[in-house]
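User: Okay, second chain of the day. Same drill as before: sequence in, structure tokens out.
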Amino acid sequence: MILASREVILGISAGISAYKSADLLRRLQELNFDVTVIPTQSSLNFVGSATWEALSGHPVQTNLWNNVYDVPHIKLAKKASLIIIAPTTADLLAKIANGLADDLLTNVVLAANAPLILVPAMHPEMWANAATQENVAKIRSRGALVIEPDEGRMTGLDYGVGRYPTVEKIVSQVTKYLEISLPLAGVKVLITAGGTREAIDPVRYIGNRSSGKQGFAIAKAALAQGAEVTLVAANVNLPTPIGAIRIDVESALELHREVIKHFNVTNLLFMSAAVADVRPDKSSDQKIKKSNLQAINLRANIDILADVSESKKKQIIVAFAAETSGDMLEEAKRKLVTKKADLLYLNDVTDGAVFGSEQTSGWILDSSGQSDAFDLSNKDTLAFELLKRAMDKLG
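Assistant: Same drill. Structure tokens below.
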């Protein structure tokens, strides 16, 4: 099963074991899922909204009647690629089995097309009740996964089948049910993103228009496939993808230092950052008065990609180029060869195209000599395509 995204809704119903889902949330994040929690109103008697917001990093909604203009149940249902409800009480099982929707969570379940996974937890007598078992069978007949509860000690002196399963069991069954494939498990990916800034003085700098969106898209795609990602971000104002190690830098010299530091333990390098070709020969500690800012002496920055390629062993290097005129493909082929890259993505940035946009178009060049046009598409699509080609070369 291929999920449309990594957006997961974690529903929490009113069971004493609701606190165990805090650990489940963390484990889902480790699988690079972005988790939004929807607790039922009654479940807040066990675990409050503040806990779920702190752990998930997202606001928590519980009331169907809040922000009605935004139609929250439909918005959340469309966003979700997977819904997990843990714990699922007998009452909630009955509602889902019979298509009832009287709160935000049940409305989202009824409106969503996403796969549904339920984790029942209740007293043994309630689990064994014929009505509960009929409801479970009905839900399973629709394709949902209902994970069997464990046997063990319950609240009070009760003992039997109905205990919240171990988080390890839940995660194992979720990954098996979804047939989650992690083709990049164990692969170390180093990504540079954004644009460097070369200081003239504390106020001014030489920079470029790169937003870092493409590099961050590659990071998210690599994480979704199990990679270990180090993201060197040059002046990027984007949230860090969950699971990535982020290193913020400003200048080309700082970026160069970090790339050299991590390259030897890297399998795949994506040099998507736009690195300034030059920097001021001298940077002033004080703001330079306009009357004194008549000329700036420049010196060349080191070519980071060419430099790191000299120490290349079995690493696969993916370069990026942005051009506006001339024979762009020939220039890109020249860069591919001289910088010893394995793949190169060429952007046509005439009139500022691509920079800051969610869309991209260009050409993918291979060191074998192949050139493929990449038609206008979103940057996430390009990220998966470049990762696939890089992994093919890595073998």
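The radius of gyration is 26 Å.

User: Thanks, on to the next one.
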